[in-house]
Amino acid sequence: MPQTEPHARSTAKPNAADEPAPALILEGLTKVFQVGRSGRSVTAVNNVTLSIGRGEVLGLVGESGSGKSTIARLIAHLHEPTSGAMCLAGKPVPRQLRGRALTRFRKDVQMIFQDPFASLNPLHTIGYTLARPLEIHGFARKGNVQAQVSTLLDRVGLSPGASYAAKRPHELSGGQRQRVVIARALAARPELILADEPTSALDVSIRLDIMNLLLDLRDQEGLSMLFITHDLAGARYMSDRIAVMYAGYLVEIGPAERVIGQPQMPYTQLLKRAAPKPEGNLNAGGLEAPGEIPDLANLPPGCPFEPRCPHARAVCRAGLPRMYDVGAGHQARCILHDPELAAQPLLHPALQPHATL
Amino acid sequence: MKGLLTILRRSPRAAFGVGLLAALLLLALLAPLLTPYSPTSQAFGTWLKPGGEHLLGTTALGQDIWSQLVYGARLTLLIGFTAGLVATAIGTALGLSAAYFGGRTDEAINVLINVFLVLPGLPLLIIASAFLRGGGVWSIILVIALTGWAWGARVLRSQALALRNRDFVQAAIVSGERPARIIFAEMLPNLAGLIAAGFFSTALYAVLSEAALAFLGMGDVSQVTWGTMMYWAQARGALLQGAWWWVAAPGLCIALLGTAFALVNFGIDEVTNPRVIHEARATRVLRRNRAAPQAEPALEPPQPLLAIRHLSAGYVTPQGPVRAVRDVTLSVAPGEFLGLAGESGCGKSTLAFAATRLLDAPGVVFDGEARLAGQDLLALNPAELRRVRWKDYSLVFQASMNILNPVLRIREQVYDAMQAHGVQDRGRLEARARELFALVGIREDYLNAYPHQLSGGMKQRVVIAIALALEPKLVVMDEPTTALDVVVQRQILQEIDAVRKRLGISIVFITHDLSLLVEMSDRIAIMYAGEVVEEAPAHELYAQPKHPYTRRLMGAFPPLEGPRERREGIPGRPPSLAQDIPYCPFFERCPNHLPGTCDVFKPARVEVTSGHSVACFLHSPAVKEEAYAAD
Ligand SMILES: Nc1ncnc2c1ncn2[C@@H]1O[C@H](COP(=O)(O)OP(=O)(O)OP(=O)(O)O)[C@@H](O)[C@H]1O
Ligand SMILES: Nc1ncnc2c1ncn2[C@@H]1O[C@H](COP(=O)(O)OP(=O)(O)O)[C@@H](O)[C@H]1O
Ligand code: SF4
Ligand code: SF4
Ligand SMILES: [Mg+2]
Ligand SMILES: [Mg+2]
Known about the structure:
- The complex is a heterodimer.
- By secondary structure, chain A is of the alpha/beta class.
- Chain A contains twelve helices and twelve strands.
- In chain A, helix 3 (126-136) crosses helix 4 (145-155), helix 3 (126-136) runs parallel beside helix 6 and helix 4 crosses helix 6 (174-187).
- In chain B, the strands form two sheets. In chain B, strands 7-8-9-4-10-11-13-12 form an eight-stranded mixed sheet, sandwiched between helices. In chain B, strands 1, 2, 3, 5 and 6 form a five-stranded mixed sheet that branches.
- The longest helix of chain B is centred in the first third of the chain and has 37 residues, at 65-101.
- The complex binds adenosine-5'-triphosphate, adenosine-5'-diphosphate, iron/sulfur cluster (2 copies) and magnesium ion (2 copies).
- Chain B: InterPro entries: AAA+_ATPase (IPR003593), ABC_transporter-like_ATP-bd (IPR003439), ABC_transporter-like_CS (IPR017871), MetI-like (IPR000515), MetI-like_sf (IPR035906), Oligopep_ABC_C (IPR013563), OppC_N (IPR025966), P-loop_NTPase (IPR027417).
């Protein structure tokens, strides 16, 4: 539902029985990739359950390779899930979609890619790129395609739109390209936007512009959004709620302010410490959990973060910790929230714990 | 068409090949003008020597050899081009379908390709043509095309597979495009270079196969081609009769045609295959030749490693020049870490590329100089530049992980830069490659991997390792970590910093992440609309930013703490760089601007406190003379 007040943020609190169904529900979504001929399998997304409310922005953070993009691609039907279910606006979406049904689904779910340098075909003009979704989804009547294209460009802040339509991607700066990419996603008038790191290739001032643009669009058109990023400050700025991924697992989820303000899972804490801080000096602190990015084909048996975790206990190796409720709408996958298990001795005393929970 | 021109301009070898090919084509087309005789007429004396009426003498049957040569060119080229076209069409269709549809389709096509690849070519040709005997030229073309398509199909399939995973193809799929459109409108045009290369290779294969078949008497020997000429010369014992030219002329023509195809192919490869070290680039420098640079009054010590003086650079577009770098003066001391920040489009990359002569056309340097350890990079010719680049300085590009060639192993790409600078010994190459990988924190076994098997962070480390391969004194890094997550970014930066301290190299680090820069740099320069508007030691810039733009830039990132509220970026846009800007470029967006001053005069950059210079009338009334307003 459109917000009238520009700064208002919708809350994800289900407050009434007639609340419309969430824009998106994922139930136990899993994706196993077969790598190479050997058939080695890699679980990029492991049993992820979450939902995005109508008009809500869900931030998804985690290091590269943690499965964030794969989730977006699964939702967008660029990959087929290995298992799990998905509902869009209350209606179940079949795992396999073809032909008409797929085109209709594509109209409702649009994606914004990370790298504006790579997500526009270098050989097409901006006008062509934007006209295609209009034509595909039947918004284009003869003659008014041009006009719609320039309206779209104006809406994303590229004005006068007509002058941009004739350009090719290489003539635009990164920020301008990303606006074009956003315009392409808006062209189909979708309900859900999957924004896969839409700002990480952009500079700071543009980043803020693009985030504001997305927030405005959310407010004006009631778009729901999955906002993927590795920039915690950006996630906090954009999102109503934030989900944290590690090695394919959802490890923490909750209201944006709480997840960033008081992270309840050691990995989220590491992310927060690694964020650039102008006051700090690069070499003064160092990182307490440098470690390798986990090898998804060879995950530890228990908590995926255990080899790097300064707080790990023996029980962390025994099995995957469950999600613990750690506050209102806030859950974290860490045994430290079980007082009994947390009393066990440390597994890696060498990884000096820096911050305690 | 434009692609062809680029190739010709960038690759002299390709230009030579195309010239050769054109000459041979002309020979075929103008045959009737070049000789008065029919190639099959036997009206002349036999075994005549070259000279006089018969430029190349006559055959044992009394045919004019020169006539046979020029008319033979027609059929030979027809077979070459047609068989090349048919084979390329088959290969392209199958390769693209395999890549697009994947799964079963891909497997089936892949099996087919491999079967055709292992079948021995010549025996297959001989058997097939035996069946098609008497079918004339077309059956030969068909046979050659059917035996020659698989190689191109394989290359195309692997490239198309990589292309299919590129974001713009995925984006087209998400927007709802149908397969046909994705294949023909999105993927095919981007494979044009490869397809052209495949065409020339199979055309060459076709010409050679035809010659071989004809020579063995398997083709239609009543037709005149260069192959059948050689067959008859052999059959009639031309060499025994001392008539070596009967054999040599068609032989030489085939060799020339082969050379032409190979050269064109080489050129296409050179231009379309990205190589990390950019051998072929050398930005055009338009600056007026001044009197030989005065022996500069000994620069104030410490002498800078890189000294950029009054550099203006940009792009020549059909709408007129875009001045993306405007009279920039900047220096980097040995061992220093200089940060360069500014919003998108303000000319950071252009500055980095122009100063290192890597700016691609239509980019040009308009004026100024860039001295690396005293040597003016802008005065070097391409050969000298090649010698200096990568050895004295190197670069890591924005999104440079995409620069790794997807079909080559990492090892070859790491070797590449070193080999280009004369390190050939395998043992040394390998040892150095391992050393470099240890330096940037990647396991050595990844040397064997292909780029797609590495994550973005690892690819970026590979590119940084390559940049360090020859121990350059200066490394320019254009947003090397922007696409990486914070943890990996921090690890890489810590490694870069350690390497810098260990080897004493200087780094110019371009990013828009000011908070990151403040943490890393010794000194920071802020760019706006092509100019450096403020320069100061990092901590001082953070503590006391002076230029209003710097201050806004500092406020433009959302905080990790504190209230969560809407922040504005910097309202407004920078001025167009296509125009002259004879006033403060920031005045339209500046909250402090002084009417009647800032929009009329241009502030000069002045050192206001030691090491801290800024171009703003709030801090100094000095007015800058426009250096280039006159042209
Ligand atoms: N090939 C080109 N033809 C015409 N103009 C160009 C071309 N490439 C870049 N420009 C223009 O030159 C200016 C500077 O571009 P440049 O790539 O140097 O910016 P940048 O500071 O590196 O930005 P970013 O942070 O987005 O990488 C921009 O206004 C851009 O539009
Ligand atoms: N098509 C694919 N085939 C095999 N493995 C893949 C594929 N796509 C992603 N992966 C693997 O899945 C993991 C998660 O990737 P991704 O979702 O792209 O991570 P993120 O977006 O969080 O950086 C990575 O280890 C990656 O290598
Ligand atoms: S479950 Fe154990 S290993 Fe995992 S994050 Fe918590 S303390 Fe660390
Ligand atoms: S010179 Fe004037 S307009 Fe420019 S930054 Fe300074 S105060 Fe603002
Ligand atoms: Mg990703
Ligand atoms: Mg740039």
